[in-house]
Amino acid sequence: MKDLSEIRCDIDAIDRQIVSLYEQRMGLAAEVAEYKIANHKNVYDKAREDEKLKTLAQLVPDEFLKQGVVELFEQIMSTSRKKQYQMLAECGQLEPLEFRELEKIDIRNKRIVFQGVEGAYAQMAMKQFFGENCQGEAVVTWRDAMEAIQSGKVDYAVLPIENSSAGIVAENYDLLMEYDVTIVGEQIIKIDHALLGVPGARIEDITEVYSHPQALMQCAEYLDKHPKMERKALKNTAVAAQKVKTDGLCSQAAIAGVHNANIYGLTVLDECIQDNKENETRFIVVAKEKTYLKTADKVSLCFALPDDEAGALYRIMSHFIFNGINLTRIESRPSKGGTWGYQFFIDFVGNLKQESVVNALRGLKEETYSFKILGNYQSCNRQR
Fold first, then answer.
1. Catalytic residue status for 345
2. Catalytic site residue 283?
3. Considering only 2-6, 79-83, 93-97, 216-220, which range has the smallest mean pLDDT?
């Protein structure tokens, strides 16, 4: 039997050969890129790569080694594609992005919508983003807000996208895919829920509690301690406060922001009733025009992957690793019109003018389906 140090010396010698051969292979990949550039061919040729992997796997008899060979060459081919994307960028052959760079968002005399009624958290987010003096118009549903943007009736819409306790607002993720709108900003606000009733009502009188489903979820522990309170979902927290005021029943209460007590003449029965006392909601600001700020530092995009291809998501994630891009969020939603297909939503740190971002986006666009850049905007953490 060989000594361990001797075996390691043999491995080192083989590794040097592998590195040398890898360098030669990448040189040939560069020649392939030059040919594709000259003949305007796509970098990614899935059929060719699948055929090549199948042929390589047949070169070894052991099943374990077959899988290892496939994984090894998948990584080599992935790196080769990234090199080719870089060469395309250097030759100016990347497709120009549809986005226009701005120095700042023009908020003068702009028409803005939010979902709900006076006192809604979306209205609060709107005022924090655009300023206290901005004039916003309330719409009934989030879809109404998107329709208003798409039709050009308004310039901006403010929509909730996720809560630190209850998670994503799934419907708005779906609407981002459905409508041709662009995220141009975000605003994070502190959410403090209060239990509001008509004057004279007491906590022990309450049998029905109205609010948005997310707010009911965020206050689940409090409501569990009051089993008499039946949960009733409405489209908005402020709408719930409005209903309690209109009905005038001591048996009803609303979960909403405490400021709604003044707006609708209600009594605060209990304050800060959310499970997470550091509860926050992130709102996005969407517009029709594809613009981004020069100082933007956050990119949002979405794409779909084949549901029958092993390692597809892993392969896509390599574009971020290779280009040194920091992912901050990944979510998935069922794709419409299919069974068990998923749409992926990703946020990452970057700006559309950065070469690393451009290279990653080119690879993602070629290697995914339904690819869409949702927006490039300034993160709320940076605004603070």
1. no
2. yes
3. 93-97
| Number of domains the chain is built from | 3
186 lies in the same domain as 164: yes
User: What secondary structure letter does DSSP report for 265?
Assistant: T
Is the domain of 175 the same as that of 224?
no
Flag whether 105 is in a domain: yes
Rounded Cα–Cα distance for residues 375 and 69 (Å):
39
Q: Which long-range contacts (CB under 8 A, 24 or more apart) does 48-53 make?
A: 49/77, 52/77
pLDDT tens-place string over residues 159-182 = 999 988 888 898 999 999 999 999
Helix, strand and coil in the chain, % to nearest 5: 40, 25, 35
25 and 168 fall within a common domain = no
Structure tokens belonging to residue 174: 């779906």
Neighbours of 291 (CB within 10 A): 19
Beta bridge partners of 377: 298
Which pLDDT tens digit goes with each residue over 278-322? 889 999 999 999 999 999 999 999 999 877 677 788 888 988 988
DSSP 205: G
Is it the case that residue 337 has pLDDT exceeding 70? no
3-state secondary structure of 129: helix
Q: Which residues on adjacent β-strands are paired with residue 113?
A: 137, 157
In the set 182, 281, 291, 368, the catalytic residue is 281
Specify burial of residue 30 (Cβ count, 10 A radius: 0-12, 13-18, 19+).
middle
Q: How many degrees, rounded to 5, is the angle at CA 187 between CA 261 and CA 350?
A: 170
Three-point CA angle 49, 51, 54, nearest 5°: 110
Q: Note whether 86 and 1 are same-domain residues.
A: yes
Q: Which amino acid is at 227?
A: P
In a domain, 240, yes or no: yes
User: Where residue 96 falls among pLDDT bands split at 50, 70, 90?
Assistant: low
Q: Which of 129, 283, 320, 344 is catalytic?
A: 283
